[in-house]
Amino acid sequence: MLFARRLSIWPTLPLNVHFRNDSGWLPFPLNDGGCRIFSRARHAIWHACRTLGLGSRDVVLVPAYHHGCEIEALIQAGVKIRYYELNELLEPDVKSLEQQLTSDVSVLYLIHYLGFPQDAKRWRQWCNENDLLLFEDAAQAFLSEIDGQPVGTFGHAGVFCLYKTYGIPDGGAVVTIVPPGRPTSELQWGGWRVFKRHVNWVAERSALIGSVHLFIKPFTKLLRRKKNHNPYKEFEMGDPFSPPLALTTKLLPKLVDETTAARRRENYQFLLDEHRLLVPRPFQTLPQGASPFAFPIESNDADAVLKKLRRYGIEGLLFWRNAHPSLPAEKFPFSMAFRNRVFAVPVHQELTTSELLQISEAVHKSIIGNHTIPIANDSYSSNPKNNRPLHSTR
């Protein structure tokens, strides 16, 4: 491992945040009187289902490409799950949706992947035509807009993961057509979790601290795995009535900034200009209203590339590797290909120009000599044409 600053897709928490004044700017949904904030977005999903009166007689159409915690939250809320496939642009596949439509289907669950807005206007109209509720999952799309209208305002419910955009330790927001109740569990302070995010900020600025962090983290991960062998632990619901940590509530108003989405777009565009051929098709064009969560890269051997990236200080993430256990994976080869082949590197607003250059150079050095077969939704797993390289990733 080289002597390098440690850069992660998660936004860090600057040391001086405690001395800042509140920004005075509240983006949607924080400026909505009906917005409720819980500790996690999965808690917000659970409450949205309860508030909308959904239960055991209701079926929710959910995408096969998902994290898993949202699926568990829906199941814990008492609804039934039915999966649909996506097309090559990671949009709901209309044919797949229509095959799943029955009289007990009540909700279309729409995910805005990596902060790139889906065509929510179209899907709201589709839901209206089919007498369904539209549930917008904007966990990765806080601050994203469609023609100036915030993502999450097109559906009957919208959920946001605040700590994916700012360096706070938790925070899941929800808005629904009928506001949910407020969290009622005991308030926790969150000092240790804030401290860890400060350490991450220092590790981004100091090669010494970054190298120590990169050296230690694999051992801490190994210890956690030994304590719990459950691969689905990350999906666990926890207490749905948990409020955000006290320090989250205190620090968030100091962190929100009108320039955040634009800075994320600038960082994304910088990497896109350098590495466009590595990017999956749905993310090769940056929409004006997007607030990118991370920069996606497609590789035949994602695990090997991630290991190489760590040598240069880049903590990439092969997110959503494990689908929820209720997914019949063999029926959804396209979504499974994304899980196995697409990982992400940072674009968050705390990155400096030199850090972006570090990321870009690390990507170049880590992927030279590898080849990528673009993911295509045409019997991907069985078509022999998909087994040959179509372009070099140089």
TrEMBL record:
What keywords are annotated for this sequence in UniProt? Pyridoxal phosphate
User: Does this UniProt record's set of keywords contain Cell cycle?
Assistant: no
Q: Please list the GO terms describing molecular function.
A: pyridoxal phosphate binding; transaminase activity
Pfam families hit by this protein:
DegT_DnrJ_EryC1
InterPro entries membership: DegT/StrS_aminotransferase, PyrdxlP-dep_Trfase, PyrdxlP-dep_Trfase_major, PyrdxlP-dep_Trfase_small
**In the UniProt record, does the keyword tRNA processing occur?**
no
An individual GO BP term: polysaccharide biosynthetic process
What top-level branch of life does the organism fall under?
A: Bacteria
The text of the family note is: Belongs to the DegT/DnrJ/EryC1 family.
- Record's protein name: Aminotransferase DegT
Give the species.
Niastella populi
